[in-house]
Design brief:
The protein is of the alpha+beta class. Helices cover 26% and strands 28% of the residues. A hairpin with a 2-residue loop joins strand 25 and strand 26. The longest helix is centred in the C-terminal third of the chain and has 19 residues, at 791-809. It is elongated and about 115 Å long.
Length: 814
């Protein structure tokens, strides 16, 4: 998962004095979350300043335009022609000076602002709307009208001439786009990211958790019932009254904007801010919109009942099944646990009495619920990765702290904390010697201990053994002493570990098919084919279009979408789809893919858990001479793998995937090596492909021990050329017109080892030959390793050849 984090925000929680954002990104990426991009803030606001409108007059020659006198500091006033409907005297505005880069009316490309004369009046700048200077997301209500800074940011002290980037607190800041691995949910929060940076950079960690003094009385506090403790091991809630909801202050809006979230209202923004800061999702309920129970304000965490529905914040109504965990009041569900809140109980601008909730939900339950409902959120992406129950008190305390500061109000009663069980932190052991052996470098004991302590572990060294107690924010991640090795190694720095090639047996020696697969890819690339990677999952729709039947495929129980509902049994439908998607850009295509296909698991008729996987090669050729190119490529592959005596047979089945009459199959000792042919026209029509496409279906391995790799010659044998002269003869045979040349050639070469080569040069059918007959003419070369063959010996060989082909094919010498 990628996160967006303000560098300035990080500085509040870790001492980064003297560390540039570029250096930070480089060093942290080597040992922690990988910073993929850096977005400097405020760079698009150069030459944009805060202006104060001192007077507004009518334009002398335009009814819809007015002349504004704008103070831009340094005792300088500009006359600007403006058409903004909300332009008013004494207004604080964003002024683009000459040379600024703006987007006219928020559309099109950026342009450089130049002096202009509008209807006869010189205009010395531009009073901007938010979308004209890239701030539409920050100020959505001022997207198309003049950005009134006094209204948009009422708490800000404005001064004419101040660069807008400085006024907004964007100058000098940068947003880090970082990839955080799934197991490190803690690092998806700014505090966790800062903790990582502190350990990696050796800088002081500055964060201090908020404190909330709970009142002893339960009066006014909600009553919480958790009936599914396995699905919700901990649920905390606190009530506040007398709050005043409304727009968030700019600093809060800015943090959300930089993280890619929109500002909604102060109370909702606070929950999102806590999620970004601590990686713990939260929710806020409006007490006035919750239905009261028999005992007053009651909230239940339970499974949905049959027939229940919920309209979520996105405006969609969802039908809930009995596997869906919900938060409910006396009337029914008000939120889908871990996924999204309901529209009915949300906090709005008129909200004055609220409940903040924070909970821990079962990761698998949240994931399955989101898939079933096709409903996703920022909270859900964190819950489904697994969160610690110990994160809740800090999140609740921080939310209350922010609410009291921004919205006012009073905490009512005590904090409600329903918990299934109190878990003890895990402790794992590993010797310092084993750490060195695993990493491959000797790291001082003190360095090993310090690395773990900087990451928050409680560490004791007993003899030569490390005893490390896992901090709560890593309790879903650290599972054994071996995990401690990784923590020490990455803080020590992977770049500091000498690159040494390990000894032992290579994987290529253990499994030759890996080397053969790599060689085959090299051959294909050398032949001008482009390698593709397609998903192992396919849809029923794709299979039907390609003339395949998905009923024999393995069905995925919980597919991400219907496009990924089945495990593929062939590479060809997916390759054909790639051809279709790229035909507008490339009218000639040569593609190949080497990957596994999957069949229902079976061993001697008994079903197992894992599917049968077979490695195959698929190819697709679009363009002129597609079939010839496909067959030539297969012949090249067979030759480079030392496979000889291949028998080619025409494929004549109609109504399937292959074009009857333009498709062939290659066999070796009765085993199928490859199918080559054009795709049937109706299949191409289904796929929307214009032109002819030839494809190759080549099994490389299979459960019955056949496939191209089985017949490949791993050790080549070379024969010394005969020093004796060769004898050449031409032979024309009349055979039935359905006789394959490949079969005829193979039969001739098998007559005697002295038949050095058989080369076709002509096929004739028509006048002078019986119906359903054809003449096949060949150059024959004879050679012996120990002597020159006499004319009589060659004649004898010819006689044996004609006898053999007459017996097998009914051939006659022409």
């Amino acid at each position: 998962m990628n996160t967006l984090t303000s560098y300035d925000w990080l500085k509040h929680y870790v001492d980064l004095k003297g560390v540039s954002v570029e250096e930070f990104a480089k060093r942290v990426s080597l040992s922690g979350p990988g910073v993929e991009k850096i977005y400097p803030q405020g760079v698009d606001l150069q030459q944009v300043v805060v202006g104060h409108v001192t007077s507004v007059e009518k334009h002398p020659d335009a009814d819809k335009l007015r002349l504004a006198s704008v103070d831009v500091g340094e005792k300088k006033a500009l006359t600007i022609v403006c058409g903004g409907l909300n332009l008013a005297e004494d207004q604080w505005v964003a002024v683009a000076l000459v040379g600024a880069r703006v987007r006219w009316h928020g559309e099109g490309d950026l342009i450089t602002l130049e002096p202009a004369t509008i209807r006869g009046v010189a205009s010395e700048g531009m009073i901007c709307a938010a979308n004209e200077i890239g701030l539409a997301e920050a100020f959505p209500h001022a997207e198309r009208e003049i950005l009134d800074l006094g209204v948009a940011i009422p708490e800000m002290k404005l001064k004419a001439g101040t660069p807008l980037a400085d006024a907004l607190g964007l100058a000098g800041d940068a947003v880090l786009d970082s990839e955080v691995t799934t197991n490190r949910v803690d690092a998806m929060g700014v505090v966790g990211f800062a903790r990582e940076a502190s350990a990696i950079l050796g800088k002081k960690f500055l964060w201090k958790p908020a404190t909330l003094k709970a009142k002893g009385s339960k009066k006014g506090a909600p009553t919480i019932h958790v009936s599914e403790k396995k699905l919700c091991p901990r649920y905390m809630a606190v009530r506040l009254t007398g709050v005043k909801n409304g727009p968030s202050p700019w600093w809060l809006k800015k943090r959300l904007m930089q993280a890619g979230l929109n500002s909604i209202s102060a109370l909702v923004d606070i929950t999102n801010y806590v999620m970004l800061e601590l990686a713990q999702p939260m929710h806020v309920f409006d007490v006035a919109r919750l239905a009261q129970g028999k005992k007053g304000l009651e909230i239940s965490v339970r499974l949905a009942k049959k027939g229940e529905t919920l309209k979520t914040f996105d405006g969609n109504e969802h039908h809930l099944d009995e596997k869906t965990l919900v938060i409910a009041d006396a009337e029914g569900p008000v939120a889908i646990a871990g996924v999204m809140g309901g529209e009915r109980s949300g906090a709005y601008y008129d909200t004055t009495d609220i409940i903040f909730e924070a909970a821990t939900f079962d990761a698998v339950s949240v994931r399955r619920t989101a898939r079933r409902l096709n409903l996703y959120s920022d909270s859900q992406t964190r819950f489904e990765k697994g969160l610690s129950p110990h994160a809740l008190p800090d999140a609740i305390a921080r939310a209350v702290e922010l609410a009291l500061d921004i919205c006012g109000g009073t905490v009512v009663g005590s904090v409600v904390d329903e918990r299934a069980a109190v878990s003890k932190p895990a402790t794992y052991r590993i010797s310092t010697k084993e750490v060195d052996e695993r990493i491959g470098v000797s790291i001082p004991k003190a360095t090993q201990i310090r690395s773990l302590r900087d990451l928050g572990f409680t560490v004791k060294l007993v003899g030569g053994t490390i005893h490390a107690t896992v901090p709560w924010w890593r309790d879903q991640d650290i599972e054994s002493g071996q995990d401690l090795v990784e923590e020490i190694a990455r803080i020590y720095g992977y770049a500091n570990i000498p690159p040494v090639v390990p000894g032992g047996t290579s994987l290529l020696q253990v499994d030759p098919s890996i080397r053969m697969e790599d060689t085959l890819k090299t051959i294909a690339a050398g032949a001008g084919l482009t390698e593709t990677y397609t998903y192992s999952f396919v849809s029923d729709d794709l299979y039907r279009k390609a003339g395949y039947d998905s009923s024999g495929c393995l069905h995925v129980q919980n597919p991400l979408t219907e496009e990924f509902a089945f495990m593929r049994t062939s590479l060809l439908p997916s390759l054909l789809q790639v051809v279709a998607e790229n035909q507008e850009r490339a009218r000639e295509q040569r593609l190949f893919e080497i990957a596994n296909v999957y069949y229902p698991p079976s061993t001697s008729g008994v079903w197992n858990d894992l599917p049968d996987e077979h490695l195959e090669m698929g190819c697709a050729f679009l363009g002129d001479n597609a079939f010839a190119n496909a067959k030539g490529f297969v012949e090249h592959v067979l030759a480079t793998h030392g496979i000889t005596d291949v028998f080619w047979k025409r494929l004549t089945e109609k109504g399937g995937f292959w074009h009857a009459g333009r498709s062939v199959q290659a066999f070796k000792d009765g085993a199928l090596l490859a199918t080559v042919g054009e795709v049937a026209p109706n299949i191409l029509g289904n796929m929307g492909i214009d032109g002819r496409v030839a494809m190759v279906d080549c099994p490389l391995t299979s459960s019955d021990g056949t496939g191209l790799f089985t017949h490949a010659v791993h050790a080549r044998q070379y024969t010394v050329p005969s020093p004796f002269p060769e004898s050449k003869r031409d032979l024309a045979l009349v055979v039935p017109d359905r006789t394959e040349y490949a079969a005829l050639s193979l039969a001739i070469r098998r007559v005697d080892a002295c038949v050095a080569s058989v080369e076709w040069f002509d096929t004739y059918a028509g006048k002078g030959l019986p119906e359903q007959k054809k003449s096949v003419a060949m150059h024959l070369t004879f050679s012996a390793p120990n002597k020159t063959l006499t004319s009589e010996e060659v004649d004898a060989l010819i006689a044996r050849i004609t006898s053999a082909v007459k017996k097998e094919f009914g051939a006659e010498v022409r």
